[in-house]
């Protein structure tokens, strides 16, 4: 059953907004005010369960990176709930509270607790949003026996009175054929001609592979459209591959695309940020 966390209090939301500092009042905000509603600022971030590349746990460091990106919505991968390695913290709830954002969590692993009396430990993906999350679902993707279960978390956001479909995934890391089947299933779930839809995630493959082409046959890719340079996101200390993607539907043309490098030690991946103008659409 979908369970939507309550909207954050106005005090927490304002506190989080104030924490962004003067960077939130840059020229892009002036331009947006002059031309209409500002674009939706989105990101993807594999947070490595809140641990640095040296495996030092610091979830607040992850929160500071998300705050500094000034995003409206972010899709997270490698998110823990109630694991010993991450201090038994409910990470999506903690980040939502810390940042004044709504959240949805998709559990792809659901395991027995590591200590008696603890909640079941879960692992998967999450959405953090400043806009209301109207509903969400998590669908498990095709699995090779013995591999890690992967999923597609889809959240319907209410943005300025209309709906935006925001999806996050994390594909298998060591099996290209499995990723191809997972990508094909994602296309089935999102549709062959999606609109006002954004897929983000750590796809564990580069843009020239069949599994990524399966996705970009029906979705755009913000990096070749609006990015500069190689766009490498992994690993964060010595980036050499672009495996973290923002893939919007064709009706969403990115204005910007950026690999966010302000704190490469927060995780073993670098986040990607993009601004997407939303076309008008009837409410539903």
Report on the structure:
Pfam families: Exo_endo_phos. Keywords: Endonuclease, Hydrolase, Nuclease, Signal. InterPro entries: Endo/exonu/phosph_ase_sf, Endo/exonuclease/phosphatase, GPI-anchor_lipid_remodeler, TAT_signal. One of its GO terms (molecular function) is endonuclease activity. The chain is α+β, with helices and mostly antiparallel strands and 284 residues long. It is built from 7 helices and 11 strands. The strands form 2 sheets. A 6-stranded mixed β-sheet has the order 3-4-2-1-11-10. Helix 5 links the parallel strand 7 and strand 8. Helix 5 packs parallel to helix 6. It is globular and about 50 Å long. The N terminus is likely disordered.
Task: Describe this protein with a few key phrases.
single chain, 284 residues, alpha+beta, 6-stranded mixed sheet, 5-stranded mixed sheet, 11 strands, disordered N terminus
Strand order of the main beta sheet, please? Answer: 3-4-2-1-11-10
Structural class call reads: alpha+beta
Helix-strand sequence? HHEHEHEEEEEHEHHEEE
The residue fraction in helices comes out at 10-25%
Low-pLDDT parts are: 1-34
- Broad shape: globular
Strand content: 25-35%
Mean pLDDT: 90
**CA gyration radius, whole angstroms:** 18 Å
Number of strands: 11
CA-to-CA gap between the ends? 21 Å
Q: Supply the number of helical segments.
A: 7
What kind of sheet is the major sheet?
A: 6 strands, mixed
List the helices and strands and how they pair.
Layout: H1 10-18, H2 27-35, E1 40-46, H3 59-69, E2 73-81, H4 91-99, E3 102-111, E4 121-129, E5 133-140, E6 151-159, E7 162-170, H5 176-190, E8 197-202, H6 210-216, H7 222-226, E9 244-248, E10 256-259, E11 272-276
Parallel strand pairs: 1-2, 7-8
Antiparallel strand pairs: 1-11, 2-4, 3-4, 5-6, 6-7, 8-9, 10-11
GO molecular function: endonuclease activity
Domain Endonuclease/exonuclease/phosphatase: 43-269
Signal peptide: 1-33
């Amino acid at each position: 059953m979908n369970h939507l966390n309550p909207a954050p209090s106005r005090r927490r939301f304002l506190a989080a907004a104030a924490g962004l500092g003067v960077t939130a009042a840059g020229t892009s905000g002036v331009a947006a005010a002059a031309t209409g509603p500002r674009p939706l600022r989105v990101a993807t971030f594999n947070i490595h369960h809140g641990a640095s590349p040296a495996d030092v746990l610091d979830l607040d460091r992850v929160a500071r990176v998300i705050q500094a990106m000034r995003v409206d919505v972010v899709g997270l991968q490698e998110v823990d709930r109630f694991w010993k390695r991450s201090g038994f913290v409910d990470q999506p709830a903690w980040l939502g509270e810390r940042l004044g954002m709504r959240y949805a969590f998709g559990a792809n692993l659901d395991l027995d607790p590591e200590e008696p009396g603890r909640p079941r430990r879960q692992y998967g993906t999450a959405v953090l949003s400043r806009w209301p999350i109207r509903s969400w679902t998590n669908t498990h993707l095709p699995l090779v026996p013995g591999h890690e279960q992967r999923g597609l978390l889809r959240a319907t956001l209410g943005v300025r009175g209309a709906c935006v479909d925001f999806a996050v995934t994390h594909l298998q890391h060591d099996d290209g054929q499995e990723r191809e089947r997972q990508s094909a299933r994602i296309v089935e779930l999102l549709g062959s001609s999606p609109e006002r839809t954004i897929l983000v995630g750590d796809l564990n493959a580069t843009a020239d592979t069949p599994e990524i082409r399966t996705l970009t046959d029906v979705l755009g890719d913000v990096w070749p459209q609006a990015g500069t340079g190689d766009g490498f996101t992994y690993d964060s200390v010595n980036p050499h591959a672009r495996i973290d993607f923002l893939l919007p539907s064709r009706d969403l043309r990115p204005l910007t695309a950026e690999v966010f490098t302000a704190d490469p030690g927060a995780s073993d991946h670098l986040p990607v940020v993009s601004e997407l103008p939303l076309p008008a659409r009837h409410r539903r």
